[in-house]
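Provenance and format

Records in this collection were gathered into a single text stream. Each protein contributes a sequence line and a C-alpha cell line. The two records reproduced below are adjacent in the stream.
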Amino acid sequence: MALTELAVRSAKPRGKGYSLSDGGGLLLLVKGNGAKSWVLRYWVKGREKRSGLGKYPVISLSDARELKNAFKRELAHGGDPQGRKKAEREEAARAETVKSATLAKIAAEWYAQREPGWSLSSRRGVRRMLDKYILPSLGRRPISEITAQELLVLFLGIEKEAPHTAYQCKGVANQVFQFAVTRGEADSNIVHSLRGTLKQKQTTHHAAITAPKDVAALMRRIEAYRGSDVVRAALWFSLYTFQRPGEIRGAAWDEMDFGARLWRIPGHRMKNKRPHVVPLSSQALQTLALAAHAADNSPFVFPSTRARKIPMSEGTVLLALRAMGYTSSQMCAHGFRALASTNLNEQGWNRDVIELSLSHSEKNDVRAAYNHAERLPERREMMQAWADWLDGLRGEA
C-alpha cells in the first residue's frame, strides 16, 4: 500500500528501527531515535541492492518517488546509478582535497620531506625564499589554481631588486610544483613553462688552476721563485690554508695560537665580519716558522718589503704569480681557494666541512655567531690531509 505524506510525517519510533513500504522498492526507514530516510531496493542479475535517496523531510515523499523513477530509468538504459553516485562523491571529495591543497601547505610538506638531507645554510636559504618571497602573495591559494602568469609576475618583481634571488625562487617553486604533481594535487608543473623568462644566473669565476698536475707545476714554480722569502712564504701559506687574499696578507702574529695549532682571524678582518678559525697543518706551521725568520720582528706575518710595520700590499701575491709566468686567465691570488675547493670536493670531503673551512657566509646571524669553530675536529683532519696531499704532489714534482 502506497504511503501518504501524513503517514510519513506521523511515523513514530518503536524502540528499534523499522521500514514502511511505498511500493516499487521505495522504503521509508525509521530509526530508533526517530530519524527518517529514504532507501530504494532494486535487483541486478537477481541480487538485491540498496541505494540511499536522502533524509526526510529534506527529501519529501514526492521527491523520493521522483528519485526512484529516475534511478530505475537510468538502470533500465544500462546505466549504473550507484557507480555514478560513488564517482560523484569521490570527485567532490577530490575537489575538496584540491581546494585545501594550498601552496603553503604543499610547500610545508615538501620542505619537511627534503629538509633532513640539506645543510643548515641550505635549509635557511630555502626557508627564507619561501617565507619572504613566494608564500606572502600566493601561499593561501590552492596550488592547482595558481597560473604561470601569476608566478612570472612574482619572479619578475623579485628580479628587479635581486636577479639571483629570483632565479633561486624559481628553482624552489619548480620543486614544490613538481612535488604537488607527483601527489596528484596539481595537474602539471606550470613552472616548466617559464623557462628562459628570467635572467640566467651570472657566475664570476676567479682564475685558478685545479688539475693535480698543474698544482704540482705551481709548487715547482713557488720553490723556484726568486722574489723575497716573505712573498714565497705567503704563497705557500695561501696554498696550505686557502683563505682570502686579504685575510692572508693582513695576518698578524697575535692571531696565531701555536698551542692550539689555530689561526684565529678576528671578525673585523673577515668579509662576513664574523670571527673565523683555521686549523694549521704541520706544513702550515713550518711555513710560519720560515715567515717568522723573514718577517724581522714585524707584527705582521707577511709584512711589506718597504715598511715592516704594515702588511704586504694587495697586489704582491698577484705580481708574484705573474712573475712565475701565470697569466690573468690562468691564476690569481683568489684562485688558491678554488684550487682547494675543487680538489677537496673531488676527494670526497664533506661539503659542509669544506664550506666552513672556506668561511662562506652563514645566513642566520644567531647560528653564525657560534659557527666559526664548528666541526673543528673534522676540519683539522681535512686540513692536514690537504697539506699531505699537496706534499705528495710536491714529492712527485
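Adjacent record:
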Amino acid sequence: MSAEAISTPPSDRAQHLLRVLIQRYIREGQPVGSRTLSKDSGLDLSPATIRNVMSDLEELGMVSAPHTSAGRVPTPKGYRLFVDTLVRYRTPGDIELDQLRSKIQGQVDEPGQLVSSVSNMLSEFTKLAGIVTIPQAQHAALRQIEFLPLSEQRILVILVINDREVQNRILHVDRDFTAEELQQAANFINDHYAGRELPQVREQLLADLDDTRSSMNQAMHDIIEAAQPAMTEQGEGGEFVLAGETNLMDFAELSDVDTLRRLFEAFSRKHLILDLLDRSIHAKGVQVFIGEESGYRILDDCSVVTAPYHLDDDTVGVLGVIGPTRMAYDRVVPIVDVTARLLRSALKT
C-alpha cells in the first residue's frame, strides 16, 4: 500500500483516539464527538483533553469538523494512517473461506463465468461494488488452428490456445474457399507454427509468406495472408466485470442523485477504471487508493481496494472493490487479498 509520508506523526495517544474515531465513524457514519470518544477509548481522559487532541489531529489534516456538528470525521489522510498503521485486519474465518473457495472452484472450467462469479462474490461478501479484470494470457501459445467456411465470404477461425482455451475469430475474405483449401492452410500453420506464441506466429507468418509463395498454391497463400491478423491476443486493451454498483446507494455519503450519476458515469468510462486497475497490475499484494489518491476527482469520495492475481509466475489480472472512503477496511482488505490468492489457485488447476 502506497502511504503518503507523514512528516510529524501523531502521538501514540492521538493515534489511539484516531483509530477509535475512525472505527466508530465507519460503523455509524456520523461525526464523532469528544464525549463519545471519551467513553469508547478506554482512556482516563476528560472531554477537554480529547478536544485538544482532536485539534492537534485537525492541524495534521487527519480529521475535520463538519459545519453542522461539533464532532469530527476522518479525512483521506487520516484513513491513510489508519490503513497503513492502525487498523487491525480480520482474516476471514474457516466458514467464510470455505464459501469463497467453493464459489470460485465451481466456475473454474469457464473463465468468463469465473470472472463474473468472482466479481459478484466480492460484491456479496463486502456489500460494495466488486470488480475483476478479464485474465490476459501472458504466454498465449498456439496449439491448433482450424478454418471453417461461413456464408458471405467469411471464415470462422478456431484457435486453441495454451492447451485448453478456445478463441473464435471471424475473417472477411475477398472470395469463397473450399473446405479442402481451408484444411490445407490449417495443416500448414499447425505443422510449422504450433507451439509458438501468437505474436511470434503472426510475425513469422508475415516474414514467411514471400518465401513460401512458390511452394504453395494461391488459395493457401491467400488464406494464410488473411489469417495473420487473427494471431493477436483477444481482449487487448483490457476488459473488466463490475458487479454490485447498486450497493453504493446504501451509503448516505454516496446516495444523492448527483454523486451516483457521476459514479455510474465513471464506471461506464472504462478507460478510467482500467487505468486505475493497471496501476495495480504489478503491485505486490493489496493496494488501497483512498479518495483523491485515485487521481480522478470523480472518485474523491471513494476508496478502491485492489490486488493482482496470477497464473504461475505471470500477473494476468486485477480484482478488487470500490466503495466509500467509509468502508470496513479491516474486513474488506483481507477479503480482497484472500480472493486473489484463491483465484490464483483455481486458475492453476
